[in-house]
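Reviewer 2 asked us to include a model.

Predict the structure of this chain.
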Amino acid sequence: MGIKKSTKQDWIRIDRSYLERTALRKKLLADHPEICVGTSEMANPAIHELYEEVMLDLLPRRFPTMFRIEGDMFYNFVTGGRHRISSALLDHASMLQHLAENVEEDFYFMVPDAQDEFVLQGFVACFPQGLLPSAKVGMSVSEIHKPVPGYEGRLKKGVNRCFERMERGQSVGRLNVGSARCLERRESDIT
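Predicted model (structure tokens):
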């Protein structure tokens, strides 16, 4: 796992394959919402904050030819999608669905528990590499990573240190390195 500081400008990336990949994400969300989206009371404040940060600020400001807000409507000119943006009218699962239909990143909401262990409490993940997030909700980082060889030794300390050092408003990027037999994303990757 590699962690590096990043700016919010680099947080969301869009390339030539955006339309194709977001179309697949939209299909996965429609066909398998119970696998792709998960919320909880513990994660809902963070979901709300992320929704407003990305959908109401970052996308229309950074990509003004692709995304626009007019009145209470959000427009995606690439996909032709549009939806109401009032977070007061949306439930948290809808917020995550709108995020996933407009950006390619998967998001996981890790919330500290009473023992300061970070626990998965929410997610929107169309392409979760090697895990099924819906089966991991309520599990701590340590529990989720139990099958990872060497996690309890060297990796656990680094992961915990990363979470402990994170500050509100700080942007970090996480990179998992691995090999894949195929770079193509397919619906069968999650089903």
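Confidence is low (pLDDT under 50) at residues 179-183. Residues 44-62 form the longest helix (19 residues). We have added this to the supplementary material.
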